[in-house]
Every structure is written in structure tokens, then in C-alpha cells.
Amino acid sequence: MSCLKGCINKKCETNKNKQTYPEKFDYCPKCGERLYYVCKECYTQLPDGSKQYCELCWEKKQNAKEKAVDAVAALVDLIPNGGAAVKNIADTIGKFSNRRK
Ligand SMILES: [Zn+2]
Ligand SMILES: [Zn+2]
């Protein structure tokens, strides 16, 4: 995954549209200002190109991911014989939709 750069010149169209450029761009093609690494999500200027997201958005993403993992884990716990049951359900749904064709 590569980082994205954005124009932090508030008067620039690039900034207004929250447009991003690939990392190899050093200057804004629209206004000529220097480009900085920006958060992919909220366009906040980042100190370096080591991350694609600012801390806030990164945290939000991590939380969302953890919640999804928890939800799946909880589901598997609920069903006796966990994964196998989920696979059976998937197979049944598959058969059902085949029959309807
Ligand atoms: Zn610009
Ligand atoms: Zn952000």
C-alpha cells in the first residue's frame, strides 16, 4: 500500500476537492505548492509517509476491525460445532439458490 499526498493550500482546487496524488508527486499540479502526506480518510496533514491514515482515523479503523472479528467469533461460539455449522449453512444456501435457477 502506498501513501497519498495532498495539497494543503486551502485556496487550491485540489485541497477543496480533497484530491490526492501518488507518493511520487512532490508538487501540486494545480497550484505548484509542495504536497504533503495526508490522511486517506480525512485529508489531515501527516508528519511522514509511514501511515496512510491519521491517528484518529487509524484508531477508528482498528476498532471497526476488532468489532467485526469479535462479531464473527461470537457467532461461531453460539453455534455448536462452530465453523462446520457455518459451512453447512453456506452449503445449504448454495443449494437453495441453485435450485431456484
Ligand atoms: Zn494545490
Ligand atoms: Zn484522518
List the helices and strands and how they pair.
Elements: E1 4-7, H1 13-16, E2 20-22, E3 35-37, H2 55-78, H3 82-99
Antiparallel strand pairs: 1-2, 1-3
Helix pairs in contact: 2-3
Bound molecules: zinc ion (ZN) (2 copies).
What is the overall pLDDT average? Answer: 88
What is the oligomer described by this structure? Answer: single chain
Largest sheet: 3 strands, antiparallel
Low-confidence stretches: none
Quick description:
This protein is mainly alpha-helical and 101 residues long. The chain has three helices and three strands, in the order βαββαα.
How would you characterize this protein structure?
- There is one protein chain.
- This protein is mainly alpha-helical.
- The protein has two domains: 1-53, no CATH class; 54-101.
- The protein is built from three helices and three strands; from the N terminus they run βαββαα.
- It has helices spanning 13-16, 55-78, 82-99; strands at residues 4-7, 20-22, 35-37.
- Strands 2-1-3 form a three-stranded antiparallel sheet, with no helix packed on it.
- Helix 2 (55-78) packs across helix 3.
- The two termini are 40 Å apart.
- The structure holds zinc ion (2 copies).
